[in-house]
Design goal:
By secondary structure, this protein is α/β, with parallel strands linked by helices. Helices cover 31% and strands 15% of the residues. The protein has 16 helices and 19 strands. Strands 7-6-17-18-19 form a five-stranded mixed β-sheet, with no helix packed on it. Strands 8-11-12-13-14 form a five-stranded parallel β-sheet, with helices on one face. It has a three-stranded antiparallel β-sheet with strand order 2-3-4. Strand 17 and strand 18 form a beta hairpin. The chain is globular. About 4% of the residues have low confidence.
Length: 514
């Protein structure tokens, strides 16, 4: 259910009678001496850090006070010289929170069931303590890998799929303890990856525990959902609301026929199983999304695929361009410009004919440009570039680097693999190079604040000796803020401790990714 939220200062004007409230799609959280404004949604979490004064002010916005009433309290609490000054300050707080988001909205009766009441005293801290803290004292979310295995063998699979004998899998009891600890640490969202979460024998028991702990998550699977499994998912609560959401199941089917879908899934009969899975889920009212990874093998069949799904009653569909997968890659799966134009036209036609369908497209913009005149890829062959001016290319690269998204590994999240080993990204090899801890006999907090994890997420300069990072004057700032993609460094240049291809200091632009 999509709530109607009017963003203050954007959708509507802030007036004396406005009732500011933190949107149900955002959470105000205390993490150590930090106050965080966190997005509340199925996908990987994003957050911003707030000053103590801003955090304490936002904690008052629980939908019970008008803007004027709120400003009177803020004037008294912060000893401001006049009501006008308080109004000016509170307006700045709202506008700052809404600068790049939609966090502060105007209260409406239909929002009441989803508004979180807060104790402002919980967010009071001193500026000195706030500045001393360098990172979250506990992860804000977790990436959970119940299994590395899967029923399919997809041509585009991104997972390492390290074999873990059943005897070495993290026991059900220990997984439950981890989920209890996560809840106690204030987590409300987790990500499930793998392998396929449903492949593990006790997967439904673990998913039931996630639901019992009121965790929000997306269940992505290619396992065959029989009528029995669908009924069991209903029983454990997958179709029940959690706040304003109903947890989503995402099932992949990469084409409208056996020839296409079975080939990309690497599994004979997959198309038939997927169709039956979709029917079993739809008949029981699941919040279902069907996804396809688009390659030249299925790029000409997207409209017919959407048409088929619409006929079955599917209302949420995603198409995503194939990206390089480090553990299993084939250049023949990259889309060319002709493919992309065709896909766009097919999706445009589908949107016109099936307006009720929520159709999402990912990575299907125009062909990405190469930013140097000639780049040596790891195979030693030249990759031709375009005719851009080198200075402009460099400036563009610097701008994109400065605007990059934060690496979540060790900064807001960590990944627990099926046997309890911890890595900071679910697409890196699961081996000693990348292991930073083990929750088999250590708590989430012990691993999160361990020397091993900190030295990987925030490597000291000495680790970069021999790379461009070692002599870079911006290394500390780079590490303290967004971090860098150690995965891309490793797969492109063979070292974890060096600039990734997107860094302006990188030796070249690396391998083609999309």
């Amino acid at each position: 259910m999509q709530l109607d939220c009017s963003v203050l200062g954007k959708d509507i004007e802030i007036t004396d009678t406005s009732i500011p409230v933190i949107s149900p799609y955002w959470r105000l959280k205390r993490n150590g001496d930090w106050t965080l404004l966190c997005r509340y949604e199925h996908e990987q979490i994003n957050y911003s850090m707030l000053s103590p004064l801003m955090g304490a002010t936002l904690s008052l916005m629980d939908g019970r006070m008008t803007f004027r009433h709120l400003c009177l309290i803020v004037q008294y609490a912060h000893d401001l010289e006049s009501l006008e000054k308080a109004m000016e300050f509170v307006t700045k707080v709202i506008m700052a929170a809404n600068k790049e988001s939609d966090a502060i909205v105007d209260m409406k009766p239909e929002l009441e069931p989803y508004i979180k009441k807060m104790d402002p005293l919980e967010f009071v801290t001193t500026t000195s303590k706030w500045k001393q803290q360098k990172r979250p004292t506990a992860p804000i979310s977790l990436n959970l890998m119940f299994s590395n295995e899967c029923e399919t063998n997809c041509a585009y699979c991104y997972a390492h799929r390290r074999y873990v004998p059943e005897s070495q899998l993290l026991p059900t009891k220990r997984w439950k303890e981890i989920l209890w600890e996560a809840k106690a640490l204030g987590m409300e969202q987790v990500t499930l990856s793998g392998g396929d979460p449903l492949f593990r024998k006790d997967a439904l028991t673990l998913i039931a525990e996630l639901i019992n702990q009121e965790m929000l998550f997306l269940l992505s699977t290619k396992c065959y959902i029989t009528e029995e499994i669908a009924e069991r998912l209903v029983e454990i609560g997958m179709t029940k609301p959690i706040n304003q959401y109903v947890r989503e199941i995402q099932l992949s089917m990469d084409g409208p026929d056996e020839n296409t879908a079975d080939k990309l899934a690497g599994s004979p009969g997959y198309y038939t199983r997927a169709v039956q899975s979709i029917r079993n889920l739809l008949e029981r009212g699941f919040n279902l999304r069907v996804k396809a990874v688009v390659t030249p093998l299925n790029s000409q069949h997207i409209y017919h695929w959407i048409q088929q799904l619409a006929g079955m009653g599917v209302t949420q569909i995603s198409v995503a361009a194939y990206n390089r997968t480090y553990h299993r890659h084939n250049d023949n799966l990259f889309l060319n410009q002709k493919d992309r134009i065709s896909i766009a036209e097919q999706c445009e036609r589908a949107r016109a004919e099936f307006p009720a369908i929520d159709l999402r497209m990912t990575g299907l913009e125009k062909m990405p440009a190469v930013t140097t005149s000639a780049i040596m890829n790891p195979t030693g062959t030249e990759r031709p570039g375009d005719d851009k001016e080198p200075d402009k290319d460099l400036n563009d690269k610097i701008r994109r680097w400065n605007e990059r998204a934060q690496c979540s590994g060790g900064r807001s999240s960590m990944t627990i693999t099926p046997d309890g080993k911890v890595v900071l990204c679910d697409t890196v090899p699961q081996d000693e190079t990348f292991f930073v801890g083990d929750v088999t006999n250590k708590s989430i907090l012990e691993v999160w604040n361990s020397e091993s994890l900190l030295n990987f997420a925030y490597p000291p300069r000495e680790k970069f000796k021999g790379s461009a990072c070692y002599d870079c004057k911006d290394l500390e700032e780079c590490q303290s803020k967004a971090g860098y993609c150690f995965r891309d460094s490793y797969f492109n240049y063979g070292t974890v401790f060096g600039p990734p291809p997107k860094c302006p200091m990188a030796q070249n632009d690396g391998m083609r990714m999309e």
